[in-house]
């Protein structure tokens, strides 16, 4: 199904968020003439309200919807507010998908999450293993909400011939990321902690977990390119992993960030705090096979660009458990 650069309207929920801004720019730079970037609760627009979702579709009449809006956070936030993470993500997604179906949109793209995979999933994670176990407990509600939306798209495809596709990106990072400890993921959280320790002359820095857990990291500009390629070339039911296929343990990641930021203090590992899922690394073969996506930015290169972007910032770090829930994107 071809998307017209001049005639079709593309609506991005969460379009003013981290990935949304990059995707909006990429689509415009690539010649798409009718791209709408919707804000979230910070902009006074709550996708959890049915009236708002209806107004959005009636007002913009999109041909393509890219659903990036989400309530996100790190391990601490997910552990403290599991009900909020499940309800708000599920509530938003259900309303947006159903409204897109009623408006007969030609394509719907859902940004899922690697948190949907089973805790003990064989590495690298293959899309066919999504339902072969329960997610890691600290972020299971968020992962289950996103996985339910993926299943909703499959059901709508069967019953209504609705062209919904699901993408599963790994942890993203890059310039413009969210450093709010209520919402930040691994890399921005570490950058914030290291920046704070350096700025305040701290001789040591405490980090959650053992450092043995592994993660895969994707530069956000690469992810935006993957979403655009999938929009242009992919129309199948099967979900698709979006990542690099390269696994990095947290200890090595922190040492690299400390090197790039010029911090030589001691790292104290608080192994009484959870590591989260033991390992995360995706099988990314389907994305390359189906729509020609491979990541082009190495972790060091991406971190160098990110550190350069944020080097003049004043970093703040507070215990995430002392803060209220984050807003939706």
Could you give me the name of the CATH homologous superfamily of the largest domain? NAD(P)-binding Rossmann-like Domain
Q: Rough shape?
A: globular
Q: What's the CATH architecture of the largest domain?
A: 3-Layer(aba) Sandwich
Q: Element order, helices and strands?
A: EHEHEHHEHEEHEEEHEEHEHH
- Rounded to the nearest angstrom, the distance between the terminal CA atoms is 29 Å
Q: Largest beta sheet, briefly?
A: 6 strands, parallel
Rg calc: 19 Å
The structural class is: alpha/beta
Report the uncertain regions.
316-329
Please give the number of β-strands: 12
Number of domains: 2
**Beta-strand percent range:** 5-15%
Give average pLDDT, whole number: 89
- Count of separate DSSP helical elements: 10
CATH topology description of the largest domain: Rossmann fold
Plain-language structure description:
- The protein is of the alpha/beta class and 329 residues long.
- It has two domains: 10-172 and 217-242, Rossmann fold (3-Layer(aba) Sandwich); 175-214 and 246-278 and 296-322, UDP-galactose 4-epimerase, domain 1, CATH 3.90.25.10.
- It has ten helices and twelve strands.
- Helix 5 links the parallel strand 4 and strand 5.
- Helix 2 packs parallel to helix 4 (82-102) and helix 6 crosses helix 8.
- The longest helix is centred in the first third of the chain and has 21 residues, at 82-102.
- The model is unreliable at 316-329 (pLDDT under 50).
């Amino acid at each position: 199904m071809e998307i017209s650069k001049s005639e079709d309207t593309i609506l991005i929920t969460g379009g003013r968020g981290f990935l949304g801004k990059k995707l909006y720019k990429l689509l415009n730079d690539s010649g798409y003439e009718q791209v709408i970037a919707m804000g979230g609760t910070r902009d006074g627009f709550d996708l959890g309200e049915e009236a708002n979702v209806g107004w959005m579709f009636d007002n913009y009449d999109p041909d393509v919807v890219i659903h990036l809006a989400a309530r996100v956070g790190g391990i601490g936030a997910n552990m403290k507010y599991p009900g909020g993470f499940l309800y708000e993500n599920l509530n938003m997604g259900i309303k947006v998908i159903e409204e897109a179906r009623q408006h007969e949109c030609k394509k719907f793209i859902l940004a899922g999450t690697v948190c949907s995979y089973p805790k003990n999933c064989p590495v690298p994670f293959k899309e066919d293993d999504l339902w072969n176990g329960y997610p890691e407990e600290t972020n299971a509600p968020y992962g289950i909400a996103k996985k339910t939306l993926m299943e909703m798209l499959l059901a709508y495809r069967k019953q209504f011939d609705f062209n919904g596709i699901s993408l599963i990106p790994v942890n993203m990072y890059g310039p413009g990321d969210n450093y709010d400890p209520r919402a930040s993921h691994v890399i921005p959280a570490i950058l914030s902690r290291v920046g704070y320790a350096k700025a305040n002359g701290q001789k040591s820095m405490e980090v959650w977990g053992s450092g043995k857990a592994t993660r895969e990291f994707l530069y956000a500009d690469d992810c935006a390119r993957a979403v655009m390629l999938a929009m242009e070339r992919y129309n199948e039911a099967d979900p698709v992993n979006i990542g690099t296929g390269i696994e990095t343990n947290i200890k090595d990641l922190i040492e690299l960030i400390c090197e790039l930021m010029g911090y030589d203090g001691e790292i104290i590992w608080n192994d009484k705090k959870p590591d989260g899922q033991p390992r995360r690394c995706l099988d990314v073969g389907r994305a390359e096979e189906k729509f020609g996506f491979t990541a082009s930015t190495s972790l060091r290169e991406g971190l160098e660009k990110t550190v350069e972007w944020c080097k003049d910032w004043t970093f703040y770090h507070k215990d995430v458990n002392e803060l209220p829930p984050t807003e939706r994107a």
